[in-house]
Design a protein that fits this description.
With about 100 residues, the protein is α+β, with helices and mostly antiparallel strands. The protein has a single domain, classed as Alpha-Beta Plaits, CATH 3.30.70. It contains 3 helices and 4 strands. The chain is globular, with a radius of gyration of 16 Å. About 15% of the residues are buried.
Amino acid sequence: MKRFSLFLILFSFLISSPAFAGDVTYRASMTGIECSGCKKTIAKSLGKLDGVKTIRIVKGSGNNHTLTVITDGSSSLSKSDALKALGKNAPHYQIVSWSKTN
């Protein structure tokens, strides 16, 4: 019974963790996001970049949103890479800040 309980604890930790060893997380503050369609456009555009695994966009205070991009760590991702991926939509969505968190 103790082994089973330990297994459940370890398993629940693994499936609840959004990033695994080797993953790299980037965070950005963005403006210009007005609706769920905007979020879909951003996620679709950034999702095409090499190594991108997860994209989250969360509403912050005022007109600000927090963008979180988790990659597999196979390549570095910069603010200019993100803007390039947004393409013709880049002027509408402003990336105010960009940082690598791990």
